[in-house]
Amino acid sequence: MNARIVHIASNTFREAVRDRVLYNLIAFAVLISAAAIFIGQISIEIERLVVINLGLTAVSLFGVVIAIFVGIGLVSKEIEKRTLYTVLSRPVRRWEFIVGKFFGLAGTLVVNTFFMALGVFGALLYVAHRFSGADSSIFIALYFIILQFLIICALALLFSSFSSPLLSAVFAFSLFIIGSFADDLRGFATLAHGLTRWVATGTAYLVPNFSALNVISAVAHQQPISWQLVLQNTLYTLFYTAMALSGAVLIFDRRDLK
Amino acid sequence: MAAIEILGLEKTYMVGFWRKRPKRALQPLHLTVDDGEIFGFLGPNGAGKTTTLKMLMGLVFPTAGRARILGRDWTDPEVKAQIGFLPEQPYFYDYLTAHELLDYYGQLSGVPAKDRKNRVEEVLQRVGLTDIKGIQLRKFSKGMLQRAGIAQAILHSPKLVFLDEPMSGLDPLGRREVRDLILQLQQEGKTVFFSTHILSDAEALCDRVAIINQGELRGVGAVEELTKSVQGKVEVVWQGTQVPASMKALGGEFHVTGETVRTVISENQQDAAIDALRRERLRLISIVPVRTSLESYFVEKLQHSQTTAGTSA
Amino acid sequence: MSSRKRTTVVAGICLVVSLFASVILLQNIDRIRPHDIYDDALFISSPKMIQRASLGFNGLMACIYWTRTVQYFGHRHYNREHTYNELAPLLEITAALDPHLLPAYQFGASFLAPAPPNGAGQPERAVQLMRYGIEHNTGNWRLYYDLGFVYYTELHDFKKAGEVFDEGSKIPGAHPFMKILAANMAEHAQDFNTARLLWSAAYESSQESNIRQNAVEHLRSIQVDEDVTNLQNAVTRFVQANGRIPTSLWEVVNAEHWRGLPVDPDGSPYELSLDGQVLVANPDDFLFITKGMPEGYKRGAPRFHAKG
C-alpha cells in the first residue's frame, strides 16, 4: 500500500481515538454486557444464552452507530470544514484519500470491537466460570460483526462522498435496516411477479445482506458455523466493500469542493 | 520560465434545486505569473479569486481551459509537491496539535522522516507560533490558525506558494510579520501568488497585480505602471474663505467649505504653495500626499466594469 | 487528465466486477446457509416481547409481521414443504401487535386449522386466534364466520359451528348467508350444499389470493364428491335391478336415462372399477375429495390449479 494511504488512515484513526463520544458508546456497550448478567440471573438456565445474545447484539448495534457516526463525517465533514483543501492540494490523489479514510475507520472499528468484545467475554466468564470449546464460535460471530462494520463503513463513505452528513447518516442507517431484512426481501421477490419481481430481486441483491452475517442466535445456541459460510461471507464483504468504495471514488473524483 | 500560466480557465456552476441554471463564476482567464515574482490577485469579495485558486489546486474542476504550473500540466500530481497552498480562513483538524498537523502534512507532501521534526520547528518559529506544544488546534485563535496555515503552506519548501487572503484575521503586528515573510520567500527565490481585497498589502508587496471583478479580468500590470496617472499629487488645506491670487496661479480647483479651502496640486509645487500661504498669513492646516494611487485605479476599474455591466444588461 | 482518467477506468471496472462477484457470492451463501435459519427466522416467539420491542411502532411492526407471515406460508407452500410450524406464532404476534388486522384472522382460519399438507393442523390454536379477534373486534360478523368455519371444516363440531354462525348473524350488517348457515348446521350439516355455501362465502368475502384459491379447490372437490356419491347410488340401483356389476358407466347412464356421462370439473369422465367403484380420473387434481379414489390411494404432492 502506498505511504500516503497509510498516513491518511492513521490520521483518521487518531481522529476517532481522540473523540470522546466514542468512549461513551463503547462504555455503554460494555455496560449492557454487564447488565446481561443480571437479566440472565432472572431467566434461570439460559444465563449463557442471554449474555451471548444481548452482549453480541449490543456490540453489533453500538458498532453500527459508531461506524455511521464516524463514517459519515469522513468526507462530508472534511468538505464542510474545509480541512480537505490543505490535504488535496498536496500530492494526494482523491482515491487515496477515500481508501485511506476507509482503512482508518476500519481499524478504529476493529479496535472498538475488541474492547466491546472484552466486555462480553468478561460477562460470559462471570456466569459460566470458564470458557468451553463451543465459545470459540463467538469469535466467528464477532468476525461477522466486524465484516458488517466494514460494509457499513464503506457505505457511509459512499453516501458521504455526495451528500451532507445528516443525509448520509439517514441513508446508511436505512440501508442497515433494509439489509438486515434482506432475506425477507428475497423471499418477497420469489413470490412477486412481473416488474415488482425484477425490482425486488434487484434491490435484494444490491442492498448489503446483513442477515447472512448475523449468526448471533446460532452461536448462542451453540450451532456450528460452517467454514464455507465464513469463507463466502468474507469474500462477499470484500467485494461489496470494493463496490461501495469504487462508487465513492467515482463520485468523489468528479466533485467540486465548493 | 513562467511559474504559472493560466490558459483560459473558466468555470460555470449549475445552480438552483435541479442544478439547471448556469452561473458563470469565472470568464475565460488568461494570466501569466513569472518565476520569482510576488503576484497580487485583487478583487472584491466574490469576484472569483477563490474559484481561480481552487481550480489551480484541483479542488474545483474547470468548465474549460487549462493551466501549467512550474512548466507542467496543472493536474500532474507531482506538481503538488512543489507548491504550497493557504486556503481562505483556513481550518484544520482541530483534534491535532500544530506539531502533529504539520507532521501529518509533511508526510503527505513527502518530506523525509528525518527532516520532518526540524522542518516543523523551523516553520513554526518562522510564522511566530511558539509555546504551543501540546495545545490542540481547537484552542487556537483565528490569528494563530492563520499562522498555522501559512506554516503548512511553506512546510515542504515549495517553489511556488499560493496564499488566499493571507492577512485576514491578523492584528497589525501580525500583518507586518506576514508581509516580511512574503518578502523573505521572494528573496529565497520562491514565487508567491496571493489574493487579497486589501490594497495596501498589494501595493506594499507586489511586483505585479491582476484585478478581477465579477469573474472577469480587468487589468494586469506592475503596480507603478498601473498607478502612474495619479502619482505625485498633494492635497493642501488652509483656514480662510478666499483664495489668494498667488495660489490661483498654481492652478487646480479650489473647494471652499465653511472656514477652510482645499485644493490638489502637483508635488513639486508644494513649496511654492506653502510660501504663498505664509505671505498671505493664512493658516495652513495640512499637506497630505494623495492616498493610495492603486486604490483610485482600482475604484476606477471597478466603476468601469460596473458601468459596462450596466449597459450590457 | 491522464491520472484522473486512469482512476475512473480502474474504479469503474472494480465497481462492475465487484457487483457481479457479490451477487454470485450471495447466491452461494443462500445455498450453504442452514435452511431453517432462512425459513423459520423467528427469533422471538413471544407476542408480548415483540410488542415491547417495537417501541410503540406496533402498527408498522404488525404490517412487517403480517408480510412475513404471508411470505412464510407462500414460500413453504411454493417449495412444497408442508410443515408450517411458525405459522401460529407469526399470526399470534401479528394479531397481538395489531388486533384489528382482520386478514390475519381469515388467514388463520384458512391455513392454521387444516391438517397438513394444506395447513398447520392446529385447529385449537386457530379457534383461540379467532376468539381473540372477536374479543377485540366486536361487531364484526366475518370473524364469527371464520370461527364457525373452523368448527365446521376441521373440528366437525356442527353444534358449536351453528352457535357461532347464529351469534354472528345477529350482528347488524351481517351477510344473509350467516343465517342460512346457522340453520343448516342443525340438520343439514353434512349436505353438499351447505359445504358449497360455506366455501362460496369464503371465496367471496376475501381478497387474499391464497384464501380464494383454497376456496376454489374446495368447491371443485365438493363437486366431485357429490358426483361420485350420485353415480355410486346409481350403480347400486343397477346392481339391485340387474344382479350384476355394470361393465361400464354407460350402462348406468342408459339405465338412468341420463343424457350423457357425467364429467368432473376438469371435464374428464368418471370411471368405473371392476368391483363397481366409481372413480375420478385424476384424483391428484382434486385436493380435498373424500370419495372416488382407488383403494390404497396415496395423495401425491398437491398443487393448486391456475387461478379462477
Structure report:
The complex is a heterotrimer of chains A (258), B (313) and C (308). Chain A is an all-alpha fold and 258 residues long. Chain A has helices at 3-17, 20-42, 47-81, 85-88, 94-128, 137-160, 165-180, 182-191, 194-206, 216-220, 227-252. The model of chain A has no long low-confidence stretch (mean pLDDT 85). In chain B, 35% of the residues lie in helices and 30% in strands. Chain B contains ten helices and 14 strands. In chain B, the strands form three sheets. Chain B has a six-stranded mixed sheet with strand order 6-7-8-3-9-10, sandwiched between helices. In chain B, strands 2-1-4-5 form a four-stranded antiparallel sheet, with helices on one face. In chain B, helix 3 packs across helix 4. The longest helix of chain B has 20 residues, at 293-312. Chain B is globular and about 75 Å long. Chain B starts with a strand and ends with a helix. Mean pLDDT of chain B is 86; it is low at 309-313. By secondary structure, chain C is mainly alpha-helical. Chain C folds into two domains: 51-213, Tetratricopeptide repeat domain (Serine Threonine Protein Phosphatase 5, Tetratricopeptide repeat), CATH 1.25.40.10; 221-285. Chain C is built from 13 helices and two strands; from the N terminus they run αααααααααααααββ. Chain C is flat. The model of chain C is unreliable at 36-41 and 301-308 (pLDDT under 50). The chains are: A mainly alpha (258), B alpha/beta (313), C mainly alpha (308). The A-C interface holds A 93-95, 181, 183-184, 186-188, 190-191, 205, 209, 211-212, 217-218, 223, 226, 228-229, 232-233, 235-236, 239-240, 242-243, 245-247, 249-250, 253 and C 3-4, 7-8, 11-12, 14-15, 17-19, 21-23, 25-26, 28-30, 32-34, 37-38, 41, 43, 64, 67-68, 71-72, 74-75, 78.
